[in-house]
Amino acid sequence: MRICVFGGSFDPVHEGHLQLARIAQAQFSLDKVIWLPAAQAPHKSEPSAAFPDRVRMLELLLQNDADFEISPIEFQLPQPSYTVRSLEELKKYPVNHPNWFLLIGADNWVTFETWKDWRKIRAETEIIVYPCEGIEVGELPAGVHMLSAPLLPIRSSAIRRSFRETGDWSGPGLPSSVRDYITAKKLYRNDANA
Description:
It contains eight helices and six strands; from the N terminus they run βαβαβααβααββαα. With 194 residues, it is of the alpha/beta class. The chain has a six-stranded parallel sheet with strand order 3-2-1-4-5-6, with helices on both faces. It is globular and about 45 Å long. The termini are far apart. The mean pLDDT is 91.
């Protein structure tokens, strides 16, 4: 079984994230993609939306995708959230002969060697890197693969900024269910991270 972990703040999740997961699933014949919302990533500022809100937005986005699963494991682990710790926990679930993959952005790949126990992650997990605007990754070592995907046309920070400034998002790429949830919960209205 080929399992890919797709971690991120997903603050908020949008259709660009979904597109990347689907492309990775097709290119690498993945049986399952586990979406791993970060409780508090050590290299980033604290997410604007609370963890339960970000999980709920993921549920709204992924409700019709049986090959996708959401894991709240990082909320249950000590903080900050370290990928190596989350992978160790996920690998405890019984799966016959799993091959593990980790989907990360080029922005994360260029700082990967600063991650906690990055060598262990590399030794036990194949890494799939998706392109990010303005980030050159160079030649990738064995076990690290570049995803053949377009650049994301939408950024979570732009969505947060729009909700802070106008109370809405009129651009493409945000499913109506997620948009309605953000509006109903008044998320990102006072967002310092936008």
